[in-house]
């Protein structure tokens, strides 16, 4: 089943609790994958739509 997540084009729905969306095969035929069709694998109860760049960090501080 194809679904549209926040700020993304239609993607293949693998599971809906938690959100796991797969890049459509037609997009994998290109040399690079665009951000709006890059896979989504989220394991928490709520899916973030935006982040605060002032407080967000990635990795160990």
* Helix-and-strand structural type: mainly beta
Elements, N to C (H/E): EEEE
Strand content: 25-35%
Which radius of gyration do the C-alpha atoms yield?
A: 13 Å
Major β-sheet strand ordering: 1-2-3-4
Number of helices: 0
Distance between the termini: 40 Å
Task: Based on Cα principal axes, name the global outline.
Answer: globular
Poorly predicted residue ranges: none
Largest sheet: 4 strands, antiparallel
DSSP, total strands: 4
Helix content: under 10%
What does the average pLDDT come to?
A: 80
Explained architecture:
The chain is an all-beta fold. The protein contains no helices and four strands. The protein has a domain of 40 residues. Strands 1-2-3-4 form a four-stranded antiparallel sheet, with no helix packed on it. A hairpin with a 5-residue loop joins strand 1 and strand 2. The radius of gyration is 13 Å and the shape is globular.
Features:
about 60 residues; mainly beta; four-stranded antiparallel sheet; globular
Present the secondary structure layout:
Blueprint: E1 2-4, E2 10-16, E3 19-22, E4 40-41
Antiparallel strand pairs: 1-2, 2-3, 3-4
Give a short summary of the structure.
This protein is mostly beta strands. It contains no helices and four strands.
């Amino acid at each position: 089943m194809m679904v549209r997540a926040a700020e993304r084009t239609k993607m293949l729905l693998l599971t809906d609790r938690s959100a796991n969306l797969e890049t459509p095969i037609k997009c994998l035929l290109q040399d690079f994958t665009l951000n709006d069709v890059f896979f989504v694998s989220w394991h928490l109860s709520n899916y973030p739509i935006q982040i605060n760049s002032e407080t967000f960090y990635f990795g160990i501080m």
